[in-house]
């Protein structure tokens, strides 16, 4: 439960940064990502799992290169991948993108949106809504 609280606080701070400046600072994302990497190496590391995670990470980076996802968004998705595993990562990924689609549908916006608040909503729905 403490981990969920820390992640929630991080996502709230990142959401405010994303809404306000449209950028999320590395001082906020990198320590969390480093902690997830240590957790992964200690708790869940396997060679096959590492190769699968590496492939997923390259796909996420392709989304960043194409301009479909921001750098901080990619780091947070990588955090979810390392911290919770592939199955839970895909749940977050799909729920966040569905929420983004609904937001775009009802707001009728064509430009990019601040995605960190959407990731926060997905995290709150999945973790505190009893889906995991």
Walk me through this protein's architecture.
81% of the residues lie in helices and 0% in strands. It contains six helices and no strands. It is globular and about 45 Å long. It has 132 residues and is mainly α. It has one domain. The chain has helices at 2-21, 26-44, 47-65, 71-84, 86-107, 116-128.
Write the layout of secondary structure elements.
Elements lengths: L1 H20 L4 H19 L2 H19 L5 H14 L1 H22 L8 H13 L4
Helix pairs in contact: 1-6, 2-4, 3-4, 4-5, 5-6
Question: What count of helical segments does DSSP give?
Answer: 6
Order of helices and strands: HHHHHH
E-strand count: 0
Domain module count: 1
SSE class:
mainly alpha
Main beta sheet? none
First-to-last CA distance: 12 Å
Which ranges are low-confidence, i.e. pLDDT below 50, for 5 or more consecutive residues?
Answer: none
This entry's quaternary arrangement is single chain
Radius of gyration: 14 Å
Q: Indicate the mean pLDDT.
A: 91
Give the fraction of residues assigned to helices: over 70%
- Approximately what portion of the residues adopt beta-strand conformation? under 5%
Q: Which of globular, elongated, flat, extended, rod-shaped describes the shape?
A: globular
Question: Features of this protein?
Answer:
mainly alpha; 81% helix
Write a compact overview of the structure shown.
The chain is mainly α and 132 residues long. The chain has helices spanning 2-21, 26-44, 47-65, 71-84, 86-107, 116-128.
């Amino acid at each position: 439960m403490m981990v969920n609280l820390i992640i929630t606080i991080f996502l709230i701070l990142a959401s405010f940064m994303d809404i306000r400046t449209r950028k999320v600072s590395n001082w906020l994302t990198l320590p969390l990502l480093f902690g997830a990497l240590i957790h992964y190496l200690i708790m869940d590391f396997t060679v096959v799992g590492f190769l699968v995670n590496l492939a997923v990470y390259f796909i996420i980076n392709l989304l960043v290169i194409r301009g479909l996802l921001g750098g901080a968004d990619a780091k947070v998705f990588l955090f979810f991948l390392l911290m919770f595993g592939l199955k839970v990562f895909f749940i977050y990924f799909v729920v966040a993108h569905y929420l983004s689609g609904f937001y775009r549908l009802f707001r009728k916006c064509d430009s990019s949106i601040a995605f960190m608040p959407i990731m926060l909503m997905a995290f709150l729905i999945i973790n505190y809504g009893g889906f995991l």
